[in-house]
Design a protein that fits this description.
With 203 residues, the protein is an alpha+beta fold. It is 22% helix and 24% strand. The protein has one domain (12-197).
Length: 203
Amino acid sequence: MKRGIYRPHKSANARNANARPRLFSVQALLGKERPRLYMALYWKGAKGPDDVNYHTALLLLPKILDPSSERQQRVRRYHIVNGVREDGTQRWDFKPEHARPRSYLLRGLVFLGKLQGDVVELECRLERVLERVPIVQEDPAWRCHHWTWAAITGLIDPLPSPAERVWETAVMFVDSRFEDSTTISIPTCTTAGRLIKPPWEGG
């Protein structure tokens, strides 16, 4: 299997999880100062032949991040994490949280759209919607990127291509620009894989 590329999983659970949740649509709107929604790929390293190299999350960012005050800045991250229950079994849980905009594990961003509304209001609104995106338990082939596919399918209307294809394009883009994100701007692209300015440069 190619590095970072997902091998499609055909179980009924995964197909159901990838179905369009249709919770509500956030149109990708025009606007100079509106908050931006990104898909983020964090390096984790594949743990097996059917695993992938990246943890996938959604980030809500202002249009421009100030590098001079980056340590004090926080952005909103939405993702699912895999934890261990008391009985030793694993469980996926939705985890909205504030995070630093950049870390050494963040290897790439995909611009999904500009959202309308106040940042604080959007943070709460997105959390209410995303906590309803289906999570598949007890399926070892189901991963965080499956959840992200379902999430962006319900949020961005219309998506220029299927969510799975957007993610695969992002993985190939990041793989081709694999660099140390602590010293350079984080590679950022459109859903079609076209290089654009990152939010640190007013992208």
